[in-house]
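tool_call predict_complex ligand=adenosine-5'-triphosphate
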Amino acid sequence: MTRVLSGIQPTGDLHLGNYLGAVRNWARMQHRTDAFFCVVDLHAVTVPKAPGEMRAVTLRLSQLLMAAGLDPETCTIFVQSHVPEHTECAWLMECTVSFGELSRMTQFKDKSDRHDFISAGLFTYPALQAADILLYDTDEVPVGADQRQHVEITRDIAERFNSRYGETFTVPKAVVPAAGARIMDLQRPTDKMSKSLDSPRGSVGLLDEPGAVNRKIKAAVTDSESEVRYDFEAKPGVSNLLSILGAATDRDPADLAGEYTRYGPLKADAAAAVIELLGPLQARFAELEADPAETSRLLQVGADKARAIAAATLARAKANIGLLEPLAQPFE
Ligand code: ATP
Ligand code: LTN
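tool_result ok
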């Protein structure tokens, strides 16, 4: 069976971009693949966080993922820091990737522009992501379009490692959905909708109430023309609304454009479609939120399953590099 792995950072509640670009696809894929989904808390530490915030956000994000349809009985959901093999493998990845390659990552450039303190971890972030992916012999990495470059660098790392040390890692490929791959901020439609952009009016949270969804979509920035056309270059705001409506209703955004002559009805339909999509998810979240101990138990089951695989892959990588094995593993 095809092995699938993806990751998501506990940097805040999920938004519509995460859902339409990634998580909804994950929920669909779990039924026909051997799927692993990782809440990448160590990636979130690359940008300083208020102490104590991360624990709550990680638990809540795990519940949101389950509410959005990831079923721990069908797929494996776990927290990155619960499987220490990720950080150990990341070092091997750091020694396989070059400074030049890391310097070309657009996510690093974007994020380092937005922060005063630029940690070394923000720079080596893709090496940890490569470890996340390669430890599981992953075939496919379902992500939004912004992550293509990170999967490309993971492929380069895997190929280089294999050619240096012999066949060790499966070379994965990115799977990007046709619709919803890039949902933009409603107020700044040339920036992607993002948890960490701090644009509450531009981003629709999965837990937003219907009134808030309506308000935000109706206030979305468009342009001074009145023609409805799917053209991201010339009309980013309108095209984004068409993308949202298209992804929410499984329709092609360019086809939808032909059905509207004014912005008002497009906004009204997009808001209604999103509200309908979010209703059942919010109801499931309320149930899960009421029982955090059960979420922790499910995450422990996920981490145990993940760790068994990660430990075997890491041992293979270390053996292929030729590291001297200890007589016994410490603390076992
Ligand atoms: P942050 O702003 O903290 O980087 P984010 O909102 O960009 O967070 P991630 O945790 O980095 O979200 O991404 C989780 C998944 O959601 C990834 O697969 C990513 O490609 C996808 N994704 C994120 N933002 C969007 C978006 N605006 N449109 C489509 N997919 C997205
Ligand atoms: N970099 C990704 C999150 C991420 C990820 C992964 C995605 C970390 N590890 C492994 C896919 C596979 C992001 O910012 N969305």
